[in-house]
Amino acid sequence: RGSSPSVEVASPVAHEIVALRFAGSTGRRRREHIPVMFMCSMCCAPQEDLTQQVNFSLSLDERSAGPAQSVNDVQPLHPTLLRSTPQGVREPTKPKGSEVADEQRATSSPEEFASATFRGRSCLHLTEEDGKRTDATYRIDSRARRLVLTKVGRSEQGAEVIVPVTAIEDIYTIDDGPECFTPEVLAQVPTEERDRLFLVVFCVDQSREPETLLLLESSGRARDFLMDLLQQMSTSPP
Predict the structure, then answer these.
(1) What confidence tens digit (pLDDT) does each residue in 2-60 have?
(2) 3-state DSSP of the chain
(3) For the chain, how far is it from start to end, CA to CA, in angstroms?
(4) Burial level of 103, CB count in 10 A (0-12/13-18/19+)?
(5) Are the CB atoms for 150 and 141 separated by under 8 Å?
(6) Taking a C-beta distance cutoff of 8 angstroms, is the pair 128, 182 a contact?
(7) Residue among 101, 120, 121 at smallest CA distance from 196
(8) Angle CA(15)–CA(18)–CA(22) in degrees, nearest 5?
(9) Gap between the Cα atoms of 152 and 133, Å rounded
């Protein structure tokens, strides 16, 4: 309509109404449609009715919304994709109490312990040369009849140790005497932890010297369960 007076009045008012509507809106779809509908009604209405509509609409908005706010000042009512998780906040971890309950259940009976070893158990791996400790997990592969130890955080050669049950020559604990362990290991293992030591001697290749695998279980009870389980598998038929 060119230089029609209705256009000159509609442009600034339409901008103000859009800002007020957006301040209380939660969706982009409504913000895009409101200016179109409002401009259509303003262009088609007489000038006298147009002025009354504008004044009436502004009056209602001022009473219901209070002081006008800019779009940048408006905070979202619900979390958005960008604000759903505050920075620096980690996902909740498993409570320590549940880990204790899992350990108590695993060592409650030989059957429960066997089931836990099939899934995998945490332990510590010790080197006989210096008694250095490394976090590890082990599991019993009942079908392949072997113990598989995986050192945590290592990807190089030697991170996994496989001990076939049929290759086990002997198993030693502190009950067999401290002389079964190197002085370096005993120096790194306090007296109250020595009942958790578990030394496996095995030989995969008869042309080579026997190898050893030294573990530190969670308790003396768990150590005994592991030793009994391996002995049963070694004597049972394939």
Answers:
(1) 444 444 444 444 444 444 344 444 444 444 444 444 444 444 445 545 445 445 444 44
(2) CCCCHHHHHHHHHHHHHHHHHHHCCCCHHHHHHHHHHHHHHHHHCCHHHHHHHHHHHHHHHHHHHCCCCCHHHCCCCCCCCCCCCCCCCCCCCCCHHHHHHHHHHHCCCHHHHHHHHHHCEEEEEECCCCCCEEEEEEEEECCCCEEEEEECCCCCCCCEEEEEHHHEEEEECHHHCHHHCCHHHHHHCCHHHHHHEEEEEECCCCCCCCEEEEEECCCHHHHHHHHHHHHHHHHCCC
(3) 95
(4) middle
(5) no
(6) yes
(7) 121
(8) 145
(9) 11
Is the overall model pTM greater than 0.90, yes or no? no
**Torsion over CA: 225, 231, 234, 235 (sign):** negative
CA gap 151, 161 in Å, rounded: 8
User: pLDDT tens-digit profile of 102-126?
Assistant: 888 888 899 999 999 999 999 999 9
Q: Which residue has the tokens 């008869």?
A: 206
Burial profile 193-208: b = 16 or more Cβ within 10 angstroms, e = fewer = ebbbbbbbbbeeeeee
Pick from 142, 122, 151: which is nearest to 222 by CA?
122
CB contact at 8 A, 146 and 234: no
Amino acid at 123: C
**What's the token pair of residue 194?**
């020595």
